[in-house]
Amino acid sequence: MVFQTVALWIRSRGPDEFWRKRRIFRLAAHYIGRRRNCYSIAVRNVHRALVYATKARKLKKEDMKQLWDTRITAACEQHNITYFTLKEGLDRSHIMLDRKSLSDLASWEPKTFECLAAIAQKKLDLDNLHRVRPDGTCEYRRRVTCAMDDAWRKSSRHRMSQETVTGRFPSLLPGRRRLAAAGWSKGA
After folding, report:
1. Is 134 a member of any domain?
2. Of the candidates 39, 42, 62, 40, the residue with the CA atom closest to the CA atom of residue 50
């Protein structure tokens, strides 16, 4: 009698050692010296390179965003317009271009970018939002934020946070007020 179920419970081994090493050597083929030929050295360097590649994927995205923003800002300065004004005007004109597209237009199609800047400025002028502050905010944006702050202050959530600060949870109070709320005084 043959028990086949026991054989199914045995752990199968991984790939053959030859193919496992072959995979590492293929990834290390462009290295110089023993880093390419000795397995123990090659495997360490390949693993380190894979870790760097994993970290670099996120860093590359951040670097590209920063590069695109720099290019767009430089092109905006040539046309006497801020980056915020450009984005706000294009959004209001329903021209949906991302950073990469705007950066490419600024680099390779300067006349097209100039027209886009003119369209954005014209749209903000038509909406009476041409007064843009140096920090990039405009009157409209400030009014909307103030209105949102007022609405939040009137809401029940704001009242709950005020109750929290004024005594329902004395442990959240800073310094002396916490001691006073707990019944401790400075002289005691």
Report:
1. no
2. 42
